[in-house]
What we know:
single chain; Cathepsin D, subunit A, domain 1; mainly beta; 2 helices; 10% helix; two-stranded antiparallel sheet; seven-stranded mixed beta sheet; globular
Amino acid sequence: xxxxxxxxxxxxxxxKASVRFLVDSGATYTLLSKNVWQAIELEPTRSLSFSLADGxxxxxxxxxxxxxxxxxxxxxxxxxGEEGDEPLLGVVTLEILGLTLNPFNRTxxxxxMMLA
Length: 116
């Protein structure tokens, strides 16, 4: 198993920033590094607690922005990272964009939609 990175753009109002995301199928929300969310002038709308892999509980602010990848684009909630936090592309954003991570070839692919 290897790491999968993908380049994208995030925007809010008329501000845009390029981001290199680590695709993390274990992360619920997408995380933007502090310099990125500040560059596009995001403001926190609420805060949530998150459990890290080692069990540590942290609190981070949440906002929303527009995320564009070559495979798709859409509006998504994002975690506003603090110093040392690296950009992650989480499952909620992948689902909003209709994408899934293929772990065998480490690519993003269209999600197979099922009707109930």
